Amino acid sequence: GQLALPMLAAGAMGGLVSLAIAGFDRNKPTEFAPGNPMHLLQAVEFGLFLGLIGFLAAALRAWLGDAGVYVLAPIAGLADVDAISLSLASMAQGDLAAPVAAGGVLLAALVNSFVKQGIALVLAPRAMALRMALPLAAALLTGALLWLFVPAALF
Fold it and tell me: Is the pTM of this model over 0.90?
């Protein structure tokens, strides 16, 4: 609903900028060997994290009202966006207002994006970190401008 257009546009803009950068990059691509996505331990860890985030979202909302969502979302976004997104989507099927759920997901995604860029700046070679920064900035700017200035009725 309310996040669809800003997030799709942000993703598209980030992808286009990434493709443009890749077109100018003359270096050979780095080999990438993904791990096993069906690894049982990772699935259990995610399930536990999802349960914890779901519990905390309900508890903080009961204690602080909708502000509890805005307290938890950036904290959850430090590690992951999926768990808070699933928890808030589930809560929005009940009595959590859709704009509050959407704002929480957006806040978690913003924090998570900045964390990933920070990790790249600290751990990755400088050229790679800079190649990541421009698409991220373009995506965040596009999403934020649509979120802030385009009426929700158009979403």
Answer: no
